[in-house]
Structures are given as structure tokens and as C-alpha cells.
Amino acid sequence: MCTSISFSRPALYGRNLDLETSFGEQVVITPRRHPFHFHHRAPMEQHFAMIGMATVADGTPLYAEAVNEKGLYMAGLNFPGNACYFPDDTGSADCIAPYELIPMILGGCATLEQARLALERVRLTAIPFSANYPLAPLHWHIADATGSITAEPMADGLHLYQNPAGVLTNNPPFPFQMMQLNLYQGLSPRQPQNTFAPELALHSYGQGMGAVGLPGDASPMSRFVRACFLKEHAVFGKDGAENAAQFFHILDALAMVRGTVITPEGKNDQTIYSCCIDAENRIYYYKTYENSRLCAVRLTEEACRGSALGVFSLNREPDVLFVN
User: Is 239 a member of any domain?
Assistant: First the structure.
């Protein structure tokens, strides 16, 4: 389970990745001349550079989320029970394996509109990267400074939705997530007025009562509602690092604490890592479950050149600053 959030101004994108175990993730920079190979189309020998969290397998970055040098963001989130891929039986260049989608879109598209047009032609096919990396049921959040969209592969094809909320979790499908927000129209960061029974002497006995009823559990629908509320009302400053810190405060309110969500297999679901991408300054910030200190990797112009992947292992050990 995961939560992805996008802001247009400031241009900040990121997510919590919630899973029961690490998947060998590292921060990976793919420079412009590192080739991407596809099953049914010519290799992409030159493309936009990108940075994100990925597993590197046989020299291929398998991105969970990334942003390219033009500021286009894309994240894959778990979509169990609904994601549907087609058989690989046509050989068409429009047939794309799920793991190929982020490289294809971020490598070739500079804007959200270009990404939408490219996705309209895509036929997602059931091709795993290898036997060691089976197919994951996914849907995707794509965003830039102009807005965001959601792409959901269903039995009747790939559905593309405008995403005015700039938020995506897991299930149900996106239109139902948006419809659910109608139940929370009365919530506010301000103190409530007594419309329940004006003739009774009712009053607020503490701060924050305007949002009583905001769901606090870890289910996908509840996280979607909570993320939308926090995103709509969070106040940002002018400094990039300050804004990144504010972004992480939002993600913290959506994170899973180890032991509070147990999978059907008896494992602990938890927020493996959280990330915030400052697209304007081309900085990828992250923190892990074990280490709350913000770490950062820059997508420099030098890093964009060349062909060798830039791979940065995560700082997972607790980092405590003693001040005495």
C-alpha cells in the first residue's frame, strides 16, 4: 500500500512506499545515454535523465517512482484486485510491460500533456521483468507543474483520469476515491459552528474540532481522504528545504507504524521509505523507516550526462545528533 502526492506550486512530488519488506531499493540516477530496452519497440538510446527510487536488476533500474529532468513525475502504486494486463499476443510496439512504463514515459515526455497522449496508445501486457521479479498489480500517478492524472489498467483497457486532488492511494479505483470526498465537505481546519442544535449551548473544548470525522486509519480510502485534506490546507513557505520538510510532515501523517497493520500472511506492513522531489531545484529527498533524517541527492547537469547509472545506497541506520 502506498500514498502519492503532487503539488503544482511549489512543484513538489513524492510518496510513502508501504510494504512488509524492503525490495533492494536505492536512489538511482539514469543519465541521458543509459539505454532502456523494451520487448516490442526499439531501444531508447537517448532520453531525458531521471532520478528516483529503484531496484537495479541486470543493469536495468526498476523504478517505483521517479522524476525526469523536465519536472515530470510518475509513481506506481499497488492496485490489487483491479489491475489487469493483456496477454502478450500481438507484438505491437504499443504493447508495454508494466516495468517499462516509467522509463518510456519519463524518458520520452517533457510534459504531462505529452505523457497523457503517449498513454492513450499504450496496451499494458502481462510481461514480468524476470522470474525473480513477478508482475505487480499497479496503477500510476503522473504529474508536473500543470496538474496530475491517474492511469489505471482495467479489464476493458487503460483508463486515464484527470486528478484534481493530486493524490493517489491504492483502492478502490480512482473515480470512487474522488466520489468518497463528498462525505467530508463539512470538514475544516477552523473551529466549527454549532449547526447541530443552535439552541443548545454547545462549544468547542479544544483546537482542531473542525476536522472531527477525518478518518485516521491506514486503509487506502482513509489515507486518500486524509491526504487530500492535509494537502489542501498545508501552508508552504518560499525556501526549498523548508517546503520539503513541510511535505514530509504530510507524509508522516499518512505513514504506517510497524505493528499497526498486519498483512494476511502475518507480516507487518510499514512505511519503508518516504520521498519528496523538489522538481524546480532537481533534488530527491528521502528518509527511511529506521532513519528519520532527511537525505538528499541532486540531479545535477553532470549527473545527467553520460551512460552509467548513478546509484546511491540508502542511509538506514538511526542518525541521532547529540547536542551536549
Answer: yes
Which residues have a Cβ under 8 Å from the Cβ of 291 and sit 6 or more positions away?
Answer: 315, 316, 317, 318, 319
Q: What is the pLDDT of residues 194-226, one digit of tens each?
A: 888 888 888 888 888 888 999 999 999 999 999
Q: Domain for residue 320, yes or no?
A: no
**Are the C-beta atoms of residues 157 and 107 closer than 8 Å to each other?**
no
In a domain, 324, yes or no: no
Question: Active site includes 2?
Answer: yes
CA 38 vs CA 24, 63, 132, 163, 315: distances in Å:
22, 15, 18, 28, 32
Diameter of the chain measured on Cα atoms = 72
- The region that residue 48 occupies, defined by phi over 0 for left and psi between -120 and 50 for alpha, beta otherwise, is beta
Query: What local confidence, expressed as pLDDT, does residue 139 receive?
Result: 98
Residue 293 lies in a domain: yes
Output the nine-digit C-alpha cell for 111. Answer: 510534459
Q: Residue 284 and residue 253: Cα distance in Å, rounded?
A: 20
Domain of residue 150 covers 2-186+207-312
